[in-house]
Write a structure and sequence with these properties.
This protein is α/β, with parallel strands linked by helices. It folds into two domains: about 220 residues, Alpha-Beta Complex (Spore Coat Polysaccharide Biosynthesis Protein SpsA, Chain A), CATH 3.90.550; about 100 residues, no CATH class. The chain has 13 helices and ten strands. Strands 1, 2, 3, 4, 5, 6, 7, 8, 9 and 10 form a ten-stranded mixed sheet that branches. Strand 6 and strand 7 form a beta hairpin. Helix 7 runs antiparallel to helix 9. It is globular.
Length: about 325
């Protein structure tokens, strides 16, 4: 089973080589292709990508049969770059790796076996990912290693990711359902994509394999606030409403986005009334959540008052 690894890169000259090296090291012995997508970089990223591709083609790293391709586009954002990579992917499976992140060097042997065993019996593989020494989106307390869950099973346990990094998707599943990243969305595009995938997926498998290492840098999108963040999150909400037909998945993902919105706006000191106006929350609240979701206190509070929910997050942060 062949794996397509897609790396979007914008001005990533400082980190791209280490990222690519980690892919070759982690996947040594696996059948894979590497697709580097330069997103209109203004530094030396494109030249570096071409140099790395040349070294890969000469068998300088990892498996001699691993193909490395470089694609270039005018700057269109990470969603556009990932979509271009998807359009050119030829593997049975697809993984997305950001240019400032790395793969775990120990994942290869287990991953090769899992990919061969899982196809075509599942749509999404969820592995383990880490930020520093802390696990990101942990699932061990919810699902057993090797467990095969339905989307209903994930939703009942409230498991929804905000990142595709650490997941592997069956390519035919993505193409058959027309699943692409929402272009023009700069924040939470991963949340929208994963929710869209979850809305179509029937079989999700959890694998106890350390796979993904997230780089943390000063000024990264997850550690900074910009004036247009509320509008960007509103775009993500529109994309969810337009692209996810499954109502429980769509509305639970909206709830998660509103948590992000409340946290970021509270940190920036933006008044709740302005958030209401800029993000069109008046027409989105209350969220229609059935069964177990409607019983959760956070969701009840959110439906009662976004301003109160925002205050509680600010209070929580002050106590931490």
């Amino acid at each position: 089973m062949k794996l397509s690894v897609i790396i979007p890169a914008f001005n990533a000259e400082r980190t791209l080589a280490a990222c690519v090296e980690s892919v070759f090291s982690a996947l040594d012995g696996c059948s894979f292709e590497l697709i580097l997508v330069d997103d209109g970089s203004t530094d030396g990223t494109l030249a570096l990508a071409e140099s790395l591709a040349g070294a890969g083609a000469r068998g300088g790293r990892g498996e001699a049969g691993a193909a490395v391709r470089v694609l270039h586009q005018e700057n269109g954002g990470v969603s556009s770059a990932r979509n271009l990579g998807l359009d050119h992917a030829a593997g049975d499976w697809v993984a997305f790796v950001d240019a400032d992140d790395t793969l775990d060097p120990a994942c290869g042997p287990s991953l090769c076996s899992i990919l061969a065993d899982a196809a075509p019996s599942c749509d999404i593989l969820i592995l383990r990912s880490f930020t520093g020494g802390k696990e990101r989106y942990p699932w061990a307390g919810l699902f057993a290693d090797g467990a095969l869950a339905s989307r209903e099973g994930l939703m009942r346990k409230g498991y929804l990711r905000g990142s595709v990094c650490g997941c592997i998707f069956r390519r035919n599943f993505l193409s058959a359902n027309g699943l692409h990243f929402p272009e023009g969305v700069r924040l939470s595009e991963d949340s929208v994509f994963f929710a869209a995938c979850l809305g179509e997926a029937q079989r999700i498998r959890f694998c106890d394999i350390p796979f993904y290492r997230i780089g943390v840098f000063e000024g990264s999108a997850s550690h900074s606030f910009r004036e247009d963040d509320p509008e960007q999150l509103a775009r993500a909400m529109y994309a969810l409403e337009a692209g996810v037909a499954d109502a429980p998945v769509r509305n639970y993902a909206l709830f998660k986005l509103m948590i992000v919105l409340a946290s970021r706006s509270a940190a920036a000191g933006i008044p709740a009334g302005e958030i209401y106006r800029r993000c069109g929350l008046a027409r989105r609240l209350p969220l229609a959540l059935d069964g177990i979701y409607a019983e959760r206190p956070k969701i009840r509070i959110l439906n009662l008052s976004f301003g109160l929910f925002r205050f509680l997050i600010k209070l929580r942060d002050s106590l931490c």
